[in-house]
Amino acid sequence: MTTINQYEGGKKIKSLMNLIIKDPVRRLLLISGTIIVFDQITKYLIISNFMLHETMAITGFFNITHVLNPGGAFGLFADHSAVLRKFFFLFVSSAVALILLWFYKKTWERYTFFSCGLAAIFGGAVGNLIDRFRYGKVVDFLDFYIGYYHWPAFNVADSAICVGMGIFVYHVITNNIPEF
């Protein structure tokens, strides 16, 4: 089996990756930036290629579908007035993003894995915040189902938030939580 060090320049790549992981600002930019870019590209592709509510069946348990979520997670507050929803979610999302940055700054040196989770949550929050600014709603397109039961559609940003929360829960379970 070949490793990265067996290739010309492998040590440079490994050195660059260590620099990124050890530098907290680069780590934040790499993780959250990648999530934001990938999230926005996938949403652009959905908006450009699918009519609203158009669905393409992929397998017996997964569809790609174009939906707009006016509410929060799982459609929370979707039935409230559009103006109230927009300001509420813009305010809450912005506040959460700022709090995440504060937590990140407090944890980036001693808790590398934990801070990676915070960076993932931050990237997901910003990805969905961009949609709220642009459309007043969030573009969702990943639709998993079993029989007639469909999990609420979601997107890349939502997935990143879940992964970040998984890392957070791991730290809670292992009692390895930083003190703020």
From TrEMBL:
GO terms for molecular function: aspartic-type endopeptidase activity. It comes from the Bacteria. GO terms for biological process: proteolysis. The active site is at D140, D158. Keywords: Aspartyl protease, Cell membrane, Hydrolase, Lipoprotein, Membrane, Protease, Transmembrane, Transmembrane helix. Pathway: Protein modification; lipoprotein biosynthesis (signal peptide cleavage). Its EC number is 3.4.23.36. The chain crosses the membrane at residues 87-104, 111-130, 150-173. It is a multi-pass membrane protein. InterPro entries: Peptidase_A8. It catalyses: Release of signal peptides from bacterial membrane prolipoproteins. Hydrolyzes -Xaa-Yaa-Zaa-|-(S,diacylglyceryl)Cys-, in which Xaa is hydrophobic (preferably Leu), and Yaa (Ala or Ser) and Zaa (Gly or Ala) have small, neutral side chains. The keyword Protein biosynthesis does not apply. It is found in: Cell membrane. GO terms for cellular component: plasma membrane. This protein specifically catalyzes the removal of signal peptides from prolipoproteins. Belongs to the peptidase A8 family. PANTHER family: LIPOPROTEIN SIGNAL PEPTIDASE. This is Lipoprotein signal peptidase. It comes from Desulfamplus magnetovallimortis. The lineage of its organism: Bacteria, Pseudomonadati, Thermodesulfobacteriota, Desulfobacteria, Desulfobacterales.
